Amino acid sequence: MFKKIFSSALFFFCLIGFSQDNLTLKIELTNSKYEIIKEGNAYLFNSETNQLIKIESIVDSHFLFTSLNKGNYNIQIQCKDFEDIDQKVTLNQNLNLKLVLSKISITELNEIVLKSEKKIFTNTNGNIKVDIASSLFEAVPNPMDLLSKLPGIQISGDKESISIVGKGNALIYIDNQKVGINDLNALSVEDIKTIEIIKNPSSKYEAEGKAVILITIKLSKKDGFETTISEVASFKKRFNNYLSINSSFKKNKTEIKTNFGYNLLNPWESIGNNFEIPNKNIDSDFIAESFTRRRQFILGGGIYHQINEDDYLSFNMSGKIQKDNDKNTTNSFISQINVQNNIETLNNNDENRNFLNSFINYNKKIKSLDAKLFTGFQYSNFYQKSNSVIQNNYNNTQFDLIQNRNQKFNVNVFSGRTDLEKSFKNEIKWEIGALYLSAEANTNFEVIDFISNNNEFTNYNFKEKNIAGYTQLSGKIKKLNYLIGIRTENTNIKGKYKIDDNLLINKNYTNFFPKFQIDIPIDSTKTISLNYAKSISRPNYSSTSQVSIYTNPFLVFSRNINLNPTISDEISGTFQFKNKSVKLNFFQSKDTVYFAFSFDSSINLISFNSINYAKESGFNLEFTLPFKQKFWTSTNNFNFILNKIEDKSAVFNESKPYLYYYSNHIFELPKEFDFSITGWGFTERKEGVFKRNSLFIMDLALSKTLLKNFDCTLSFNDVFRNMNFNENFTINDIASKGIYYTDTREISFSLRYKFGRIKDSNYQERNIDENSNRIR
Fold first, then answer.
1. DSSP letter at 546?
2. What is the C-alpha separation between 291 and 665, in angstroms, rounded?
3. Would you say residue 568 has pLDDT above 60?
4. Of 17 and 89, which is predicted with more confidence?
5. 527-561 residue pLDDT tens
6. If you average pLDDT over residues 16-23, what whole number do you get?
7. Residue 61, C-beta contacts closer than 8 angstroms, at least 6 positions apart
8. Residue 545 burial by CB count (10 A; 0-12/13-18/19+): exposed, middle or buried?
9. How far apart are the first and last CA of the chain?
């Protein structure tokens, strides 16, 4: 019945007709002496989606864009020896512009003088866009640390997942192309132009997640080459160094990009916990500390070839090679039935993590249908190998060899997709697409136990196939903009140990994910937006592994191969007034994933792993309030949250509202200095099962450009050393009081040197693996 209703709705919207706008935009350029400029290029972007619409060169002394619809556009103009122009244009009728270019930072437009000034933060319906290029953020050494400095973005302690406050896990896109954590880590901050935090993504984005982080890559402009060399010296508990080289070369219709990074890192982390199991008369507490020597090689390269005005072919490959040497020390106290022990555990671990991603894309415009067709294939591989030597010292006697743990995890993912986009004369756009994905993961887990002589070896195999299809219709009825879409996904999962004949995991399920959005303009400064979306969050492929971490004789961290996906329903409304917004959001999820403890009395061991909690629901009331006063620019975000997590195996405590706040201030000082101060944090959080501590974090940065080509930035992060997380909860009759200590207090110095330029760059890639964020 639902399919019939939806098909009828699609048919109805396809019949809605309006006359085609077919507007033209003509631009003439002169210099300050009003002499006509005869060489240059103009790039026309959709101001809402930031998608490149057309590229034109000067012909007969002007640019001419034809067959345009009414709406808002961004124009970027580059001419040799003249200052670039980045200008917004509202097109309601045919428009002729005369622009005067100058070598100084002044642009004259129709006798109105505009100073070239970029906003670092832009707010649209609660979606925040951050201009990274040529800002203080560009000096951050890696993308994960960069994201952690933006409003509402939270990075997990192990830096393996990214979430948005009030939304949960986020999808990551690069140039409207979906990527994962490993792709993000292989990206250079130098290549990033903007980052947009989309709170209500349309159905063109995959159903995996309730929010999207959209990263836009810089466009080079001139034939030739451009190279940027950057180095960051970072002082935390120990010294860290980041070195990267990024190069681009373009000739005619072909462009090549490469990047290389070498990082010498010394991360530190610590975790502690207090356990009580009253019905077993057990008390335990521990504090663990880890020092790591880490070497990282980050490599990337790609080629883009423009076949003609509308068609292109591209290939890209990126990877990261990482070698860790860990020294882990745990001091534990265990009291069980009046028997007490103090235990010191040494865990020396060597680990390799390698990631490779490659894809080839082809884009074709079918002129007979006035449609765009995209086809792409992608292959990804993640390999992890670790060897651990574990020793225990009971009650300050001597260290005894306990275990050797040898673990290997390997996952291969192949995917292919196709997308068709068709625009109609009346501003209706219809999109349809399909995806096929095949993933296979293998885990080899070996434990050599020197105490019991009970050695263990397992080989676990996991296979997943995903077939997905979607359709989406968007358009405009008078002043009202609408979007309606649906996506369906079939997932088939099988998992078994090699020695077993029967499957341990055998799942086959199909889900439908409808999305709806409507924008109602009140006037030129006020808009009301309403959204509904259904989404899914699947377990990472690493959760299918049997990899475990030995903490002490009483506690082990392990994976959970039986995790189910989380299904969420969400409805929200946003009121936008100029650049300020207020948003009310409600969501409800089932099978949400959080950590939990369980005790196995037969082996006297507590396991710490992820499980599915029964349900989660919450309200968010979010205010985004930017302002600017002369040399002072401020962006402020306040999110009042009431969240409730429930499960029958956990003790439900109270659920109370709490506040997330973010405030960034940038001061343009004399002599071209820029100073930034950022503060963010939470009040105390009580979310049903979990009670978490309050936080307040402050970061400072000072930047200046020397000799035009040298950018220098001095940063002081986590000034008050407050980035410590407390989490208290009771589950399976185990009361836990945990704390996680981070090494985020940092003084760093960044130096960047750039030379050369690229002209007319159209370099782009599209990630066709919708599950690449699960490869970790």
1. -
2. 34
3. yes
4. 89
5. 999 999 999 988 887 777 777 889 999 999 888 88
6. 49
7. 28, 36, 37, 38
8. buried
9. 40
How many other C-beta atoms are found inside a 10 Å radius of the C-beta of residue 344? 17
Higher pLDDT, 746 or 91: 746
* Average pLDDT value for residue range 709-722: 92
Q: What's the mean pLDDT in 507-531?
A: 92
- Residue appearing with tokens 């530190």: 268
C-alpha 296/C-alpha 355 separation (Å) is 11
Rounded CA gap, 379 and 769, in Å?
Answer: 8
Q: Nearest CA to 409 among 476, 356, 352?
A: 352
Q: Report pLDDT digits (tens) over 669-679.
A: 998 899 999 99
Closest CA to 661 of 636, 641, 686, 644: 636
Nearest to 424 by CA among 482, 470, 471, 371: 371
In the chain, domain spans: 2-116, 221-774
Q: What is the pLDDT of residues 230-254, one digit of tens each?
A: 999 999 999 999 999 989 888 888 8
Dihedral angle of Cα 196, 200, 203, 204, to the nearest 10 degrees: -10
Q: Is residue 205 within 8 Å of 472, Cβ to Cβ?
A: no
pLDDT digits (tens, 9 = 90+) for 381-410: 999 999 999 999 999 999 999 999 999 999
Residue type, 310: D
Which CATH architecture fits 221-774? Beta Barrel (2.40)
Q: What is the pLDDT of residue 204?
A: 66
Return the structure tokens found at 65: 């864009």
Specify the pLDDT at position 4: 43
What does the pLDDT read at residue 594? 94
**CB neighbour burial string for 307-341, b if at least 16 within 10 angstroms, e if fewer:** eeeeebebebbbbbebebebebebbbebeeeeeeb
The answer to whether the Cα torsion of 9, 11, 12, 14 is positive or negative is positive
Residue with tokens 């979606």: 127
Count CB neighbours of 665 within 10 A.
Answer: 14
Residue with tokens 């080509």: 709
Residues 593, 610 contacting (CB under 8 angstroms) = yes
What is the torsional sign of CA 305, 306, 307, 312?
A: positive
What is the Cα gyration radius of the chain? 28
Q: CA 301, CA 355: separation in Å to the nearest integer?
A: 14
Q: Does domain 2-116 have CATH number 2.60.40.1120?
A: yes
Distance CA 84, CA 37 (A): 13
On whether the CB atoms of residues 129 and 118 are closer than 8 A, the answer is no
Residue 190: what pLDDT? 79
pTM value is 0.79
What whole-number distance in Å separates Cα of residue 22 and Cα of residue 94?
A: 9
Structure token pair of residue 548: 């475990």
pLDDT: is 755 or 105 the higher one? 755
Q: Which residue has the tokens 């009670």?
A: 691
Residue with tokens 């029958």: 648
Determine the Cα–Cα distance for residues 559 and 611; give it in Å rounded to an integer.
Answer: 9
384 residue type, one letter: Q
SS3 annotation, 190-201: HHEEEEEEECCC
pLDDT tens readout for residues 203-239: 666 777 788 888 887 756 567 888 989 999 999 999 9
Q: Do the domains 221-774 and 2-116 match in fold? A: no
- Tokens 């200095």 found at: 673
Q: Report the C-alpha gap between 216 and 198 in whole angstroms.
A: 13
Please return the burial class of 297, using the count of CB atoms within 10 Å of its CB with bins 0-12, 13-18 and 19+. Answer: middle
Q: Nearest CA to 197 among 473, 581, 628? A: 581
- What distance in Å separates the CA atoms of residue 392 and residue 163, rounded to the nearest whole number? 37
- pLDDT score for 112: 41
Q: In whole angstroms, what is the distance from residue 159 CA to residue 142 CA?
A: 12
Would you say residue 18 has pLDDT above 70? no
Which pLDDT score, from 0 to 100, does residue 402 have? 94
H-helix or E-strand spanning residue 503: none
Hey, CA dihedral for 204, 210, 211, 214, is it positive or negative?
A: negative
